Amino acid sequence: MSTPLEPLTLTGSLVRLEPLSAGHHDGLVDAVRDGQMWDRWYTSIPRPEDMAGEIEGRLARQERGEMLAFTAIRTTDDVVLGMTTYYDWDAAVPRLEIGYTWNRASAHGTGTNAESKLLLLTHAFETLGCECVGFRTQWVNHQSRAAIERLGAKQDGVLRANRRYRNGALLDAVLYSIVRAEWPAVRANLEHRLRHRVAG
C-alpha cells in the first residue's frame, strides 16, 4: 500500500516526535512503568515485558503502509514520554486517524500531549492535505474522551460491541473527528492552551 506517510521528526517547544525505532525500547519501558500505564483493563497499553513486541508490531504495520509510528520525547531533558501514530490513511479523501497513543503518567497535564496533537494535526492538514483527521477511544475511557474533546474534535458516533477488551468484555468505540474547516479554530485553541506553558 503506497502512502505519503514517510518517517519524519516533528519538533515543538515541549515535545519532539521521532520515528519509532528499536532504540527507543528502554525509554519506552521506563515510560510505561511510570504510573503502571498498562494496568488499565480498558486499554491496550503494553506491559514492560511486551514492549519489544509492541515496537516490532508497529514497525511491521508501518512497513506495510498501515501506520506511521512515533516516539514522544520531552525536549527539555530527552526523556521518553510514550508513543503515538498516524493510521488508517485514505488517499481518496484524504484522511487519516491519530491514535494508539499513551504517555507516562507524570507527563499528564504538562502540555506535552496537547503539543504532540498540534504537531500531528498541523502536519496532517497543512502538509498531507487532509480533509479530515479522526480519533477513537473506548466509551469507558473518560480521561481519553475528555482529552479528545478538549482538542475541539466533534463526536461522530459510537460503534457498540465493536471488539473485545483483553479481559473478554465487549468494547464500545467512540469516534471523533476534526474537518478542514474546523482546523483554524482548533489550531488557535491549542496554541492558546500551550502559550503559557512554553513561556514558563
From TrEMBL:
It comes from the Bacteria. Residues 16-154 form the N-acetyltransferase domain. This is N-acetyltransferase. It comes from Occultella glacieicola. SUPFAM superfamilies: Acyl-CoA N-acyltransferases (Nat).
